[in-house]
Amino acid sequence: MDKNMMRKERIDRGLKVRTEGIYAISSYREILYLLGPRLLLIVGIIALPFVLELAPYWKRVVNIMCVYALLALSFDFLANYVGLVCLGGAFFTGVGGYLSAIFNVHLGLPIYLSIPLATVSGAALCTVLLLPCLPLRGVYFAIITLMYPLLLTRVIEALDILGGTNGITGLDSFPNAYIEQYAIIIMMLVFLFGMRRFVNQDIGLVLRGVKDNDQSVRASGINVTHMKLLAVFVAAFIGCFSGAYVAHLYMWAGLSLFALDFSIIPIASVVIGGGGTLVGALIGSFILVPLSEILRAFGSFRIVIYCAVLTGFIVFKSEGIMIYLQRKYHQFERWVKV
Amino acid sequence: MSAETVLSIKGISKSFGGLKALSDVSFDIAQGDVFGIIGPNGSGKTTLINCITGFIKPASGHVFFKGKEITAWQPHKIAHVGIARTFQIMRPYYSLPAYKNLIIPLWSPRARKTGGWRGGGKHGDRDTVAVDILEEIGFERDSRVPYKLASALPTGYLKRLELARCMALRPEIIFCDEVFSGLSMSEIAGMLPLIEKMKMEGITLIMVEHRLRELFRVANRVMALNFGEKLVEGEPSFVIENKLVKEAYLGSEGI
Asked: A120, A227, B59, B179: most buried, per Cβ within 10 A?
């Protein structure tokens, strides 16, 4: 048969349809179909530090990888579920990191208090600072949020507050390497599965409604600004936790916490991983961050290769890895006559 | 009219640049009315709805709901007191299934406060309530239609979904912005009983419509607009026979 007369048809696998309702528990096969990918991710990440036992340098990379994964998660949530494209990942990490340093160094709070406190108060602070920008939409919101970390950097530099260009040194480190590692791994998994649940709750649906059609949400008697505030708080919560963690990881809170990397790499991760899947954000950063480490060997040529890989992903798999994998997992394809 | 006035519009004006979209429009709507607003294209019907429901701030004039001024309130506050509206260009949440579209109004402070829907209160199951409302509005419960993505639904269902979104708020007044436009005759025939039913439930309806024949079957009062000015108001038969209305629709030379 002529290929031009055929088209590709995609059909859900019977197994997928069976696992949508209560029948998911009808046999081990169905249960495995549902749990398999989730267990693979959870067990894989938890086992990763043991696998890398012989390469201590790469264990550090795993920490950074998880930090970027959290930031990507926060970006994916805001951009693809609430419709706020926030380029201010660095704003969240900076505020979280500096607050954690203030709590730990200046106020003398122990690490297990400074990180949670910095997370909550940082999220509140970021939300208040972003409040004036919430009526903005689309590219305007994106540009404004890109400016915030730059603004705070200049303020700290110019006024020479919070240690100026030297930053705040002498933060407590984590009690041992395992706690350091598993603190971020466990929190990443908690945030991931928490967010997946959150966006399908009724309140999460309202947020998705804001993205789809904010006029309709207003006509339904819901204050859109309140909903956006809530969404920014949730995203900033995740971002500030990452920032506080990074500050304690390096035992230093400096201007590099506001570095553009924290804004841009998460976005690239979401693009590669597949926007709107949340898991894709993790997968994207699990690819990009190690890749960037491997490429260190190439010296200044590194950024060229990095960009080439990024471009390749965007051109050839623009839908994102996770969306591609989901499709292959849930559906099969066949050629049918037109 | 012996019934009590629920909505009173006094001297609403609005212009966009040099174009006078509305000039000094006033009317009263009584409890239980089905009030039709007619007029040729560009006569300011939708602008009038936008001004009343807060999506546009009127340049001058006042809107009173049960004696309380609600002029230029935020749209969500106006919806909260019980004035719902549909959009002429349907605005469903395309990425959500049809019944999940109703979770948003059911989650709103008004729906949570007034409850009313079976189990739709603070701890009720909103999914169940949403499917109930959709069934009332003409989505077959046992079919797959209520569970399809809104982006996969045809116009007729999207128009119903707009009405369902209003119904979920349990409003006192619904503004219907051209719910019949773009529908086939049989689809309209299916919609008319819904309008009748809302009327019987005591909801005050304000319908902007081009389909005059269908409108006059349900409306008890009609107002005609042209170039943002109110031409005439009264019984449907009186309005349609009015010379000014005929001129507005057919042009003045032809008569």
From this structure: B179
